[in-house]
Amino acid sequence: MCNLYNMKKSAEEIASHFRVATATSSNAPDEIYPGTPGLVVREEDGAPILQSMTWGFPLRLKGMKPDAKPKPVNNIADLNKPMWVGLARKPQWRCLIPLTAFAEAEGVKGKMTRTWFSLRDEPIFAWAGLWRVSDEWGPVYSGVMTDANEAVTAVHDRMPVLLHRDEYDQWLHGSFEDAVAFQKRVFPADEIVMEKTSELWVRKKSEPEVERRLL
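and the corresponding structure tokens:
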């Protein structure tokens, strides 16, 4: 699953990449964690817009107290599951998640480090996602996951559904079968760049502490 990604480009650069007419102001940080804001590209009245949303669909688990904070469901394991299929069948609820790299934890528990993955020759790329408007957090989004390719599998068995530039339109407007096909395909491993680091996965107690969930 993916519980951390970054976006190190400005809103203006993101808007240019996705051909959004007007960039939007955002409080999204460079590193995005579940339950925090991130920028999303979606369509409105036939045109792409850039919007700040919370990463993760709010989920209330059985037995939670009425005043307990919902858990953010930030990854989508199967588009055919009841939680997602209704949205996935309607293109208006599909979105593109801009990023410059995604991270996976590597190493022994308590000393895990961050291994980053990016796309070769693509300073900005897109992760296929779904969005909706929630009662708890307003607009929210979650990213679709797939089986890891050879470039990622040494670190994790799952990875985001990544899209090439010429596939953005098909994800946003294609059939439900098109969407499922993206989730089932293997993304080309030779397009992935891995960067191992000595950065601790959990660096400071002040960073957001959220429950990572995958449905």
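(Above: one complete record from the training split.) The CA atoms of residues 20 and 48 lie 5 Å apart.
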